[in-house]
Amino acid sequence: MVSGCRPRMSRPIAAAAERQQRSIDKRAAIRERALALGFQAVGFARAEIAGEARAHLGDFLQRGYHGDMGWMRDKAERRGDPAVLWPEAKSVVMLGLSYAPEENPTGLPADRGNISVYARGHDYHDVLKSKLRKLAEWTQKNLGGRIKLFVDTAPVMEKPLARQAGIGWQGKHTNLLSREHGSWLFLGALFTTLDLEADAAGDDHCGECRRCLDACPTAAFPAPYVLDARRCISYLTIEHKGHIDRSLRPLIGNRIYGCDDCLAACPWNKFARAGRENALQPRDDLKSPKLAELAQLDDAGFRRKFSGSPVKRTGRDRFVRNVLIAIGNSKDPALAPAAERHLTDPSPLVRAMAVWALGRLLPDGRFARLRDQCLPGEPDPEVGAEWAGS
User: Fold this and answer.
1) Range among 84-93, 101-110, 153-162, 345-354 with highest mean pLDDT value
2) pLDDT at residue 74 above 80?
3) Residue 341 contacts by C-beta under 8 Å, 6 or more apart in sequence?
4) Can you give the pTM of this predicted structure?
5) Which of 81, 152, 195, 204 does the annotation list as catalytic?
6) Region label for 258, one of left (φ > 0), alpha (ψ between -120 and 50) or beta (otherwise)
7) Which of 69, 86, 197, 299 has its CA 20 to 30 A from that of 370?
8) Distance (Å, rounded) from C-alpha 128 to C-alpha 178?
9) What is the mean pLDDT of residues 76-80?
10) C-alpha–C-alpha distance, residues 297 and 304, integer Å
11) Is 284 a catalytic residue?
């Protein structure tokens, strides 16, 4: 070999290096375009779920922690394996959009309803889908491949994939955490047939901290990194369709849609800058709404007020159920009339919580007179049980 000359790379090695460079170039282009569209976090992962995350899902379902969210159990196979969801997918582009609040969202006055930060603005599904669709169209046009996009509406394990893509890690409260954005990231995913090099998975930075666990009003965490949704206020006020257990109602306080306590308690939030997406900015009427006004909503009024909001998905009856629980927890007798008008509501779910709220707000004599008046004609046994048990 002549001195000073470099040996030629073998064809397989050269081809592999070329593929890697193409992958790096495509990743850089996708990242640049995603940031230009307003995403704050971008990462790349293989279209597969780590074994630990699949095992965790299986244990979660086996213990019944999913409550009555039967769709989680029914679609567990697709949720745990992207190849079942879309066999052609090779890579996943994970995107994060910050909705960090300007101040701590907890601790509103007892006569006000606390709506989770993520639901105080426009429906994040619509916002993320619009951005993801633009990114998908640009990617297919300029880089090729086929793409499917997902935003919390399909059996996709976004949080494990985001960790695998290096965006952050799943904290002890089971939500995604980021050193840059704290607890406040909406996640979207692009599954693609493009073969893109994966990022290094995110490391856990929770350490010995357990502030999120201790902040939970209902003790919904049996252990760090494990959530029993049946005790979670977000599940109870959004997903749960029936009556909320009597032992949990006082712990809900004035949280009428979701709960931010475990998220807000995380010390990593001190590095998060307030979200900049205009469509996700909180509406003034949803920052600190009066319980008395929310209790007046009929179905048409509910739909008007929450048009374009994720709150709309709960439906009027469940939402007013939540409002009446908050009224019962307010310790404010002045709110009793707002509950009393619902004793004849068409929904048994609403009537039952009106009874419970009045049982906590009215003097015994006044409550007994209402019971004698209403109970004999009450057709629903569960509402009757509320009268008898209050």
Assistant:
1) 345-354
2) no
3) 295, 296, 354
4) 0.91
5) 152
6) left
7) 299
8) 19
9) 72
10) 10
11) no
